[in-house]
Amino acid sequence: MTKEEFLQFLRDPEVCKEIFAIVKKGGKPATPAQPQVVAAPQIQPTPQFVQPAALKVQPTPQPVQPAAPKVQPTPQPTKPEATKGSGSLADKLKFLRGHLDKVREEEQIAATKVEEKTPAEKYTVISNRRCPICEKDTRVVKTKSRINVEKRDLDYCIHYKDFDPYLYTVLSCEHCGFAAEEKKFTGAWPNKLKETLREFLKQNDMKLPFVEERNVEDALSLFELAILFSEMTDQSKGRQAILNLNAAWVCRCEGFAERERDFMEQAAENFAVALENERWPINGISDDMATYLCAAIYFLINEYDKATNWLGRIMNNANLRSRAPKLFEQARDMWQDIKRANKA
Q1: Beta bridge partners of 124
Q2: Who's near 291: CB < 8 A, 6+ residues apart?
Q3: Which residues fall within 8 angstroms of residue 175, CB to CB, at 6 or more apart?
Q4: Which residue of 21, 134, 218, 220 is surrounded by the most CB atoms within 10 Å?
Q5: Tally of domains within the chain
Q6: Among the ranges 75-79, 187-191, 299-303, which has the highest mean pLDDT value?
């Protein structure tokens, strides 16, 4: 019997009387026949809705990360204990020595950085000059310090140790394109020649880009312009000869042997014409030196017969020994060199 059925049974009055009688008699049931007990109607319990069991979701297996290696801590150097009796003086001296070492190291690094400058940065400076043709201020590159000399050739070409100043012989205007060696660039110009060049430069764009550090092609292009402008204005073969010779020196110092010979031959031809027709000195070169240079040029390009002819003019000049003894000795030494070369 369920609990609900039992409670329903106790609510019946007849059942209650019987129970009361039993309790009164000491809990013993009555002897007469037992009264018929009417069974209580059975009440069907309301079926409860059973929740379906939730599906168990299997967790996605996670990749196992390898255990990170244990990093052992770097043992810190133990500071030595101060010597007894030294106090803090030893520590101060140690600090000062370390500071001085650091200062010396920084000075050495700074000195190294200075040495790492390019030759152009070390030996040149940019300055301003007024162009004699367009009369505008223009930037020009000038050599700024003395350079160590390695050797000197027979035609006075100087080989320098770390830098070639011949690359910067010609100055040029970045506005109009006029180019000339410094003495001519900064000198006075007649108005007629200025007008001639102005008209030419208006009709022909001759400007080259300004560069602080020139290469061989930059320098030779400026030499060609300077020679062109000389032909248009003063028409001095002596000056053109010197420009051609300087250009040849650039080629020699930079290893352009083929172009060097072309400039050398042109220089010798111009010197020869100038010695016959022009007044000397030109650009600080005397006629005696120009004669010697003709001989030296032909000697260096292995045309010994032409070199001998020009040397003969010097050796047969009675006054040259007293007037220019050093030049005479150089010519005599070259004569001996030609004799040895012909015998070989």
Answers
A1: 143
A2: 275, 310, 313, 314
A3: 131, 134, 136, 138, 207
A4: 220
A5: 1
A6: 299-303
Q: What is the mean pLDDT of the chain?
A: 81
| 249 vs 238: CA distance, rounded Å | 17
- What would the two tokens of residue 278 be? 């022009």
Which among 148, 157, 93 has a CA at the least distance from the CA of 123? 148
Instruction: For the chain, give the longest Cα–Cα distance.
Output: 190
- Which band of pLDDT confidence, cut at 50, 70 and 90, is reported for residue 229? very high
pTM for the model: 0.66
- Non-local (6+) Cβ contacts of 304 within 8 A are 298, 338, 341, 342
Mean pLDDT of 178-196: 93
- In a domain, residue 279? The reply is yes
Rg (CA), the chain: 57
Asked whether the predicted pLDDT for residue 319 surpasses 60, the reply is yes
Q: For residue 164, tell me if it sits in a domain.
A: yes
Residue 272 lies in a domain: yes
Which DSSP string do the residues of 232-270 spell out, in sequence order? HTT--HHHHHHHHHHHHHHHHHHT-HHHHHHHHHHHHHH
- The answer to the question of residue 49 being in a domain is no
CA distance 213 to 298: 32
The pLDDT of residue 124 is above 80: yes
Cβ neighbours of 154 (radius 10 Å): 17
Write the DSSP string, 276-308: HHS-S-BTTB-HHHHHHHHHHHHHHTT-HHHHH
Residue 290 has pLDDT above 80, yes or no: yes
Domain that holds residue 168: 119-285
* Cα dihedral 175/181/182/183 (nearest 10): -130
> Smallest Cα–Cα separation from 245: which of 153, 141, 118?
153
What's CA 258's distance to the chain center, in Å? 32
The arithmetic mean of pLDDT across residues 293-299, rounded, is 97
